Amino acid sequence: MIKILFICHGNICRSPMAEFVMKDLVDKAGLADAFAIASAATSSEELGNPVYPPARRKLAEHGIGCAGKTARRLTADDYDEYDLLIGMDDANLRNMRRLFGGDPDGKCRLLLAYTGSTHGVADPWYTRDFEATWNDVYAGCKALLAALS
């Protein structure tokens, strides 16, 4: 089983979108039993909060639900628990590596690196452009699944 943890700053927009998009993609590919997929935050600002309403609506537009998801904080133990720790941007990667004391096993990656891009997933908290975030997340998750298949 491949265990993937998607990570962003607050775990209410980008990383839960990636979590549920990836779950949808692996389910449609008949691979749900081969993956464990979750998401977490590098900060504690949103702990316990549900997925941000515009992010929920964007997922719902594509027939993807996220009911029951609440923000949780990344822990040092997550490094050993997951095979891949996928950050949404460079700041997430820096915070992840700081918490983990580095990345000795090379598990920390940027989502869009799987598409060949060097930029991070658009942050809708600041841009309010959930369509751009959807496009980034969907492309990244499709490329990640292709790389793992």
UniProtKB/TrEMBL annotation:
Keyword Transcription listed: no
Task: Report the GO molecular function annotations.
Answer: protein tyrosine phosphatase activity
Q: So what does this thing catalyse? A: O-phospho-L-tyrosyl-[protein] + H2O = L-tyrosyl-[protein] + phosphate
Q: Where are the transmembrane segments?
A: none
The main enzyme category here is hydrolase
Record's InterPro entries?
A: LMW_PTPase (IPR050438), Ptyr_pPase (IPR023485), Ptyr_pPase_sf (IPR036196), Tyr_phospatase_low_mol_wt (IPR017867)
According to its UniProt record, what is one Pfam family this protein matches? Answer: LMWPc
Record-listed E.C. numbers: 3.1.3.48
Q: Which domain of life does this protein belong to?
A: Bacteria
Which Gene3D superfamilies does the protein's record reference?
Answer: 3.40.50.2300
Coiled-coil blocks:
none
UniProt key word Hydrolase: yes
Active-site residue numbers: 8 (nucleophile), 14, 123 (proton donor)
Residues in Phosphotyrosine protein phosphatase I domain copies: 2-147
Keywords (alphabetical) are: Hydrolase, Protein phosphatase
Q: Which family does it belong to?
A: Belongs to the low molecular weight phosphotyrosine protein phosphatase family.
Q: By what name is this protein known? A: protein-tyrosine-phosphatase
Taxonomic lineage per UniProt? Bacteria, Bacillati, Bacillota, Clostridia, Eubacteriales
